[in-house]
Amino acid sequence: MKKIVSLLFSLLLLAACSTNGLSPVITVTSLYVNDDTTDYAQTLGSMPSLVVGDEVNVTLDLNGNGAELKTFQVNRTAEIKLDSLGYEKREVTSEIDFTDVEGGRLRFVDGVNDTHLLVKAKVVSTTEKETKLSFYLSSKAETNAAQYDLVLKTGV
User: Fold this and answer.
1) What phi and psi, each to the nearest 5 degrees, are found at residue 51?
2) What is the pLDDT of residues 27-77, one digit of tens each?
3) How many whole angstroms separate alpha carbon 44 and alpha carbon 46?
4) Contact between residue 152 and residue 131 where contact means Cβ atoms under 8 Å apart
5) What phi-psi label fits residue 16: left (phi over 0), alpha (psi between -120 and 50 degrees) or beta?
6) Which strands sit side by side in the sheet containing 55-63, from one edge to the other?
């Protein structure tokens, strides 16, 4: 009887301590250029080359894969400028040490497992054949962070 109880307790403890081990996921759900009504999220190769002044609007779905979200970061090359980040204010901490909207960094409050963001950026230079927006997402689970590189052609 002791062995059965001990075995059941061990299995219960193991199940309680394990995580799903799945990394968070970043999905581009829409991608628009300027006022064009064409959504290039699924057909990135057909998107026209960008020129100085073009605006890119990217909608992202962020999912913790069963875990709470921790941080989101946008990095960009010198040819593109981050205009704004659209997000649910109640889902992101307002503490300056953790969230820097102008710098492209968000820190999520407890309890947020998935959310949507709108990233608006503008092309400021076309010295290279392409420019890049990189998105990073980490969760509170002990897994690797997710990274998504959005490579955009420019009119060089």
Assistant:
1) -125, 170
2) 999 999 999 999 999 998 899 999 999 999 999 999 999 999 999 999 988
3) 5
4) yes
5) alpha
6) 25-33, 55-63, 114-123, 80-86
92 Cβ neighbours under 8 A, 6+ residues apart = 99, 106, 107, 108, 109
Count other C-beta atoms under 10 Å from residue 54's C-beta: 20
Q: Supply 145's token pair.
A: 């962070």
Kindly provide the b/e burial profile for residues 77-110, where b requires at least 16 CB atoms within 10 angstroms of the residue's own CB: bebbebeebebeeebbeeeeeebeeeebbbbbee
**Contact status, residue 27 vs residue 63, Cβ threshold 8 Å:** yes
The pTM of the full predicted model, rounded to 2 decimals, is 0.80
Interval 77-112: pLDDT, tens: 888 899 999 999 999 998 877 888 888 999 999 999
Q: State the pairing for strand pair 130-139/69-76.
A: antiparallel
Structure tokens at 109: 């409050």
